[in-house]
Amino acid sequence: MVTPQYFVLHPQLQQDTIALGRMDLCQVLLMNDSQFPWLILVPEIADIRELFQLNQQQRQMFMEESCHLAETISVIYHADKINIGAIGNMVPQLHIHHIVRFRNDKLWPAPIWGKLPAVPYTDQQLAEQTVLLKQQLSLNPLALGD
């Protein structure tokens, strides 16, 4: 008998992010680094590492959710650019970064990966960001213990 596989968020993502809620396919996470508005989409499908492992319907849904997220954060933050990437060398679970970039940010135009230590949000900043993002993205609640 084959044991069914269930989606579990990778421990590193649990440690580094704040769960904001769900779209139809993906969990939406906020990276706990106040230097950049930085969100992560994680398809809630067990044991996948690559986009090509999604079936056609899931790929289409992912693209819709990614574009919705990118457009929304671009408008909210008046972005100069949205960097979208799926690296996965440190965290193999499929997750896609959506990072708001500004011409005057600390690292423009270079990539941000591994360049600066994270600066966690203050409680007030986190409260403001989560309310803003949840409202603008119209997310479904993320149940505790998922």
In words, what does this structure look like?
- This protein is α+β, with helices and mostly antiparallel strands.
- The chain has one domain: 2-Layer Sandwich (HIT family, subunit A), CATH 3.30.428.
- The protein has helices spanning 11-16, 56-77, 123-137; strands at 17-22, 26-31, 38-43, 81-85, 96-101.
- A five-stranded antiparallel sheet has the order 1-2-3-5-4.
- The two termini are 25 Å apart.
Short note summarizing the structure:
This protein has 146 residues and is an alpha+beta fold. 29% of the residues lie in helices and 20% in strands. The protein has a single domain, classed as 2-Layer Sandwich (HIT family, subunit A), CATH 3.30.428.10.
Task: Furnish the topology, listing elements before pairings.
Layout: H1 11-16, E1 17-22, E2 26-31, E3 38-43, H2 56-77, E4 81-85, E5 96-101, H3 123-137
Antiparallel strand pairs: 1-2, 2-3, 3-5, 4-5
